[in-house]
Amino acid sequence: MGLRALGNPIASFIDYYSKTGSIGAVSGGGGSTPITASGGTELTPGDGYKLHVFTSTSSPGFDVSSGNGEVEYIVVAAGGGGGADHGGGGGAGGFRTGTLSVSPGPYPITIGGGGAGGVRGGTSPTNGGDSVFSTITSSGGGWGGNAPPSDPKSSGGPGGSGGGGHGDGVRSPGGSGNTPPSNPPQGNSGATAPSPGGGGGGGAGAPGGSAPVPSTAGGPGGVGLQAFSGSTVPPSYGTPGPSPGRHFAGGGGGGGPGTPPDNGGAGGGGNGGGLSGTSAGQANTGGGGGGGPGSGAAPGLAGGSGIVLIRYLI
């Protein structure tokens, strides 16, 4: 207790609490006040929260007009494109979640675009674009390994989640996930392709998979993660998953001549080509694109665009 407070009980009380960090409880400063904000698609699911969903780049983005406190966020980057002809599946976009303190003012939003699929002997696949909310950046998913002979991208690319490696005679390694690193991690690695089929792209919830040997199938994409909990996110966003709720950032399935149906990861990952046919990553999920089948010069397909979700108590 400071000497200036001696003999004055009120001053003594304030002087003590100013040294414990609790002065706000006495003076009325600090703490949080109800948030009023606009931006994106605004929803009130009836669970005590207001939800803002952004599916395209926006400025001012999440615009707080009054109040201060913490909001919960999920920032999903775009998925990488799948590789061609026994191609690796594209990696899912990075999935970052947490809380952020906000006060009145604009918070611009960037939504990443899906990476392009690869073409044998032609266009190389590309990573997905980053998604950004304030200081939070999620990294685009890595490309899926593309067909040689001339493409240097036969290995899966690094990213939020890594792309799967190219199969056939090359059997290239998958790309690393959580690149650049974040804590907690924003994704997982893509799979090496030990069989003729390409490796699966990594997902937010699990690494990409490899098909067993011997097999002509492509590997499965890694599963994505659930957004928030319960029924906060309506079924118009994300996909079903292995647990209740809506899922995002699934890895793309690897392509091969015998690819089984539905080998894209839950959370928007595209299926690898083969018996099931190639599919792109689902829009606004961050899902990786499916790898091209093992026939002719079949291309890989694009990754899905990203999304940002923000919620707070009302």
Summarize the helices and strands and which ones pair or pack.
Layout lengths: L8 H10 L4 H5 L5 E6 L2 E3 L5 E6 L3 E19 L18 E8 L2 E6 L20 E3 L2 E3 L86 E2 L20 E2 L58 E7 L1
Antiparallel strand pairs: 1-4, 2-3, 3-11, 4-5, 4-6, 4-11, 6-7, 7-8, 9-10
Describe what you observe in this structure.
The chain is mainly beta and 314 residues long. It folds into 2 domains: 1-31, no CATH class; 33-314, no CATH class. It is 5% helix and 21% strand. The chain has helices at 9-18, 23-27; strands at residues 33-38, 41-43, 49-54, 58-76, 95-102, 105-110, 131-133, 136-138, 225-226, 247-248, 307-313. The protein is elongated, with a radius of gyration of 23 Å. It starts with 8 loop residues before the first helix and ends with a strand. Mean pLDDT is 88; it is low at 1-29.
Could you list the spans in which at least 5 consecutive residues all have pLDDT below 50? 1-29
Radius of gyration: 23 Å
Query: How many domains make up the coordinates?
Result: 2
Largest sheet, if any? 9 strands, antiparallel
Please provide the count of β strands: 11
Looking at the chains present, what oligomeric state does this protein adopt?
single chain
What is the mean predicted local confidence, pLDDT?
A: 88
Which structural class is indicated by helix and strand composition? mainly beta
Helix content: under 10%
Q: Give the N-terminus to C-terminus distance in angstroms.
A: 39 Å
**What percent strand?**
15-25%
The backbone outline, from C-alpha atoms, is elongated
Order of helices and strands: HHEEEEEEEEEEE
Counting DSSP H or I runs of 4 or more residues, the number of helices is 2
